Amino acid sequence: MARTTTTYRCSECGWTTNRWVGRCGQCQAWGSLAEVSSAPTRTTSLSKPTQSAQRITQIEARHARGISTGIGELDRVLGDGLVPGAVVLLGGEPGVGKSTLLLEAAARWASQGRRTLYVTAEESTAQVRLRADRTGALHDELFLAAESDLGVILGHVEELSPSLLVLDSVQTVQAQGTDGVAGGVTQVREVTNALVRTAKRRGMAVLIIGHVTKDGALAGPRTLEHLVDVVLAFEGERHGAFRMVRASKNRYGPADEVGCFEMTESGIREVPDPSGLFTSGRGPTPGTCVTVSLEGRRPLVAEVQALVVPTSLTQPRRVTHGLDVSRVTMTLAVLQRRARHKLHTRDVYASTVGGVRLSDPSADLALAIAVASAMRDEEPAGRTVAMGEVGLSGEVRRVPAVGRRLAEAARLGFERAIIPAGAADEAAPAGLTVVPVYSVEEALAAAFTPTRSNVVPIDGRELA
After folding, report:
1. Is 183 labelled as part of a ligand binding site?
2. Taking the domains of the chain in order of start, what are their residue ranges?
């Protein structure tokens, strides 16, 4: 006869072991292991399928086409709107605006004549109504319920038959009869499994809000991201207005797309053209350089700023904001070794404008020019953008979609673009001078050399 065995599971990452230990062997969390009784092993018998398998050519694809949510930037990230039966998980830092965004999406969905159910397990219905009054997210087809019991939530779904369910949040809902507390590994897995089964059976789209850990990862077991169809991250600083929705998994569309929003007093607003948010608008100044980053398929013009000051410390400071600190450190090392900039005796501060985070390697060249500009106390010549990945040997490597980046720079009125020489075959838009470079030294020489378009006319004459 099979015997029940006892195992211990980590409440943070789901790691299991046969004996209790004080520290998780996978995520290194202390005191996170809880006892879980495993049921005896059973064998699965064969059963007759209720529906025969079909030829792929006989299956209609119209049931998997997306429906617009009414928010263009959210539709852009999802691919083509919400697919009936899809389960979407949205995670983000506390206070970033997850509930505001999904309440707006629920109201837009209901305004199209579709019944919508918004379930909150963290607030009362009156609190949600106050937010809806402030943001204008009111509609008769939008229903509210404040419940934390999974069985009651599924009862609301059977009673109302909504086409969209919004749950805020999955970590605060508890399934009766399942071990663990709300937010634990077992509870989160059971709640998500039940919502996925209901969504597929009824053809109902589900939007779930998820908490994140202090490291920015989604709280709960890693299998949570595998169960859902779409995983979105809502990013932004609490003290800034800019917000960005980024897809990390999408079964119905691109997994590298982003949507841009701005948080205002009256709610959240779409930003279809966000490039102007990430530049200071003052023109070239010492320690600055503009680049064109590629977020998904969208080119974004962003400004990189640098400040270089002497230091009295044995180990100089390297402070970054909005940039990858490892790439900043590598770029400074290249400038020290290949361009002969003595940075080992100086503190370097590097930041972006507008709170945008640049993870695209194409920002390396703009960072190098900004640091060199701060060292020289000299601004780059004219309205110049720079894009390219910097290698350890000092070469400037090619980056993808250079043509799209150049078109965006020309649209915003830039006069010159410093790009990798390997991308010089890209067609330059009218009015934009392209300067191909092979190395960081060539890029720095080009950045501080005025071109004819930078010559200022005075009384009909040209002063170089």
Report:
1. no
2. 5-38, 67-272, 276-452
